[in-house]
Structure formats: C-alpha cells, structure tokens
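Example for reference:
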Amino acid sequence: MNFDDLDIEGLTDEWLSHDFMSLPHDSDSLWNDFSVLPPYETNHVIHREPMSPLRTSHALSTSHHQGEQGPSLHSDCDVGPVSQDASDTRIRMVSPLNDVSNVDHIPYAWNPSSAVTAHEPFVEVHDDDALFSSHVPSHDISQSTYDRICRNYQVRTHGNQQHRSHDLPALGVFNLFLGLFFTRFHPQAPYLHLGTLDTNRDLRSHILSIMAAIGAVYSGKKGSRRFAVHMFEESRRQFQTTIEVDNTLMRDPTTIYSGFLICFTGIWCGNKRAFELAEALRGQIVTYIRKLGAPSSRSDTTAGGASNDQWRQWIHDESLKRLQWLIYQLDAQFPTLLHISPMMSLTEILDWSCPCDDEFWSASSARHWKSLLGPASIPPSKSFSAAIAAFMYPGLGGLPVLRLNCWSAYLLITAIHVQIFAYSEVRQARNMYSEEYELELPADTEWRRKLLAALHLWHDNYHIDTMRPGSVADAYFSAASRNLYEVAAFLLHVSISDLQDIIGKSGKQHIQRAKSRMRIWSTEQSEERAEFLELVVRGFQRYTEHGFPSSATGPSGSPDWTPSSPVAFFLFSLFFYAMSLEGPEERRNSFRESIAQRPQSDRSSIAYDVLKCGFEARADDGSGRAGGADVDHIAAEPARLFLRYGASRLIEFGGWGCSIGLALLLHWRSKI
C-alpha cells in the first residue's frame, strides 16, 4: 500500500474543522466548547459575546472560568506551536476547557495570574429528551433539598472583580444528572449503599453538586463538560468551607467520599486549573483516610440483635473499607497521569481486606443479605496481603493464586503497576546522564524478571477474557483492569520519560539523548520484545476500531471506557511515532512485514492502514539514519501520521475532557 493511498488529511485535519461540531460528546455543537483563540500578545481580560442558546428549554448558563494569558509559561525548547497562518485559523483552539493559553503544547501548564474568560456556555436538556424516558427516579432529591443547594451556591470572586453565580438547572434536570451519576459512574466507585441511601437525608450540598457535575459529563450534552468544571469549583469551595467550619467532618466518611469525587472530577475534566487544585486536594483526602483508621472486622454480628441492625453495621464497616480502596485507586493514578510517585505505599494496604463480592453489597434488604450468607456471620473477604503474595513473593513457593472478584483483581493490577513504576524510576535515574541504556545490575534484572512474571500471572488468572463479570461494576473493573495491565506492561518495557523528551518536554538538550536511546531500544529483538509489540499493536487497534463511545455503554455492552483509556492510547500513538521516527530502516521493514502478515480481519481495519503507512520506507543514508535537513523532514512525515491520527481519535473520546489536552499536544507536535 502506497503512503498516498491513505487519506491522512481526512483522518486528521478535519477534527479541527467545523465538522468538529458533529463529534460524539456535545453532538449539537461541540465546537462551541472551544472557540478560537485571540492573538498571542493578548494580555488582558478576554471578553466574548455569550453564546446564543439554540433553544430555551432548560438552558443552563454556567459561570465564568479562569483562563491563562501571555508568555509567562513557556517551553525550554523550540517546540511550540507554529506561527499562525492567517489562512488557517483552525489550529488556534482554546485550551481545555475554556482556559485561554499560548502553551497548549505543554501538558497541565497553567498560570495562576490568569485573567477571567467572559464566556457563557449552556447545557441544553429539552423536555422531550430521551434521557428523561430512561431516568430512574429512585435517588431524586426533593424541592426542599434543591432549595438548600441553591442557597449554598456561592458567589465567586476573582481578584477585584465579582461575578454572581448563574442559576442551577431546574430541579428536573438536576435530578436527571443525579440519576446519570448513579447509573453510569457509581459502579466505578461503589461506596454508597444504594439500598439504604436517602439522598435528601444523608448527603450534603457539596456532594450532591459534584454528583450532578459527574452525571452531566455522562449526559453527553452541549456544554456539559464546562458545566462540570464550574460545578467542580463550587463543590470544592463548599467542601473546604464546610470542613473549616466543622473539623469533625475530617473524620466523616461521606465527606471524604465527596472529596474523592471532587478530586476525581478535577483530574479528569480537562481543565488545567481544576487539575492543579485537584492535585493538591489529593494529599488532603489521603491524609483524612489515613486518620480515619481501619474499619472493624466484626465476626460476632450474629450474636444477638436484630438482623436489620447486623446488616446496617456490616454496611457501615464495608463502606469504610471501600472508601479506603477508592482513595488508594485515586492516588495510584498519578504515576500514569504525571509520572510521579503515589503517596500511599504497599505496606499501608497489605493489612486491608478486599471488597466483598457485589452480590452481597447489592442486597436490597437484611433478609436477602442473610439468605446469601447462609450460616456465615458476614460475607467472606480476602486479605489483600494473601491476594498479592503469589505475585510479589514468588520465591516463597507454594503460594496460591486466590479467586478474586473483579474489583479485587483491579486493585491487584493497580498495586503491581505501582511497583513497576518504582522500578522504572530506578531505571530512569541510572540512565539519566547516559546516551545509551546501561546494563542492568543483577539485582535490577531479577527485580524486572519478577515484575514481568507477576504481569503474566495476573493476565493468566484475571484478564478480561478470563473473568466473567456479573454486574455493571464487575464489567467496569474488568475493562479498567485490562487497560491498566497494558499501561503497566508498557511502563515495564519503555521509558515514558524518553518518549516525553522526544517530543521536547525537557528541552533541546534532552531530545537527542532520548532519540538515541529509542534507536538502541528499537534494534533489540527478542521473544519478550515481540510479545510486547503484539500487545501494543492489539491495544492500538482496539482503541482505533471501537472508538471512544459517549453513550452509557462501550463496546460489547461494557461500561463507558475508563478515564485512563485516552492515556493508554496516547502512549501507544507516541510510541509508534518514536519507533517510526528513530528506528533503523531494517527494523521498520521487519515491523512492516509483521503487520502485513496479520489476519485478514486485522488487515481490513483503519489501524492496519495507519500502522503500515506510518512505517513506510523512506530515504536513508545506509546507516539507519536519514541524512540532511530535507531528508530528515521526509523521514519524519510518515511518523507524524501517528501524532495526527492519535489526535483525531482522542478528540472523539466521549465523556471526560482529559483527552482533549492530549489531543492538542499531539496536534501541536505534528505541526513541527
């Protein structure tokens, strides 16, 4: 297949055209969530005319957002966006979400001295919307609870300017968003016991607000992402104020859970300011969960007392256990997000018990719960130290691989991933000042071998093809486990820091060194390396073919893709770009031949075309490196396909806005 046979422009540039409005998430007018940037030299408050709502029913105007201005943040290397051509305004897009920036090419960059962006989007939910017909009202709030939320809705300030908070959506729309939270997000974070929950009595205003924000994200409506950013800010302020007023809430589990939801939203919503605030909030809620202490393990719950009391006491203890694991999961996401260590260590969690099976947690009454228990006093729960022993301590011999539910299997791969990150940090520190990968010390080689064996053992016992999900929560954790397994394997084999440096993260002085390491890495051939490449190819193909659904369910009826799914696809795209750019022609030929030999079902996919064209033969001076500036440019063009195509797919992710920033990063690099 000739490189020209693939319509690259059709695959890449159109995502920045006005056809952007037709993409999945904000299906009516997604383009309106991004607008066109002013010139770089703008260093004052940006004023834009409010967007006119297409319809008036339930149109919600959200608040102003913080933006960032001027050149106060910049890259150390000459890898910024190309100068704007007056004939092409499509590439001047606003930072996600509504943060005006000239540093879109720098991930997570935000200027705290930024000005206010005067822009008023709308969330539109019409009375005849299909979401209302599928709404489950079991957790609706009353008018009095809604009035309380409105009273607590704060007036926001920024510098010397003051802005009145816009009205909340009508009660019906607010309840719709709450319903979407419980049906589409809560299975990912099942702390609340839905059978006994009274939303009017048990939940404070700030947790109801952040629940509505998350539900809005899953609605897929125009402006919903920006509404989530706005509600994140309101909920975060109320959360902090409430704790300052009443310090006992630092030990209140539901308050800590609301902090988890606020932090999660800030991390994945796509807004840079929200991300930085959420990053700081992470330390706060980790501290709170540590101080809360371990839940009691009551083995004598059947000794006296009514069965309803026993059931409710067990719910209390189990919910504390689940809250601990949710905070650990959130903390463990930072190695993937920012390539930094988590705050919580493996030794902290070894004595914890795994979450119980979903059938016990989902029991709607004490009688149903007791019938599931049989003669047991409480549902069985395995020690996490016993679950992880066979993976972390294979030298002890004879340790069994326990049968785990889907959530526990996810916690297990999370812990393995954190250990792999620790290994990668040691590897990176050793090679920091070297142009080549140094030989590993014997202890490091053994460490790596054990981690690889742990990955293989986990895959053989708990991979999504092995597990049989029995609920929506099980299906989510199975899909999330596969995603994290791929990221963990990627981290074990490839230096993410080098991939970041190849696209200029650390400045010019690090680019060539990172490229040199990638050249050396790409020449190594082994069975293990071939197995890893197959994993990345299959992952790349799966994300390409299935896309990123914005609906309630993903491929094959599984839950919505995990928020970290775009991170995995971003890494795969960046990896193929680096391999195509720096790998010697002989290695590219070998990889191209292996692609051509894939099954017919694979060869009919878009991923097949992208992989084949991205490794197309190019001019070479015989040494494996292109010669001369012109030839360098020609050699880089096939590799850029991975950046451009990766950007086009990431922008289609339906749901959380984090993928937009990753898409912009790949887009800017493809223009260099």
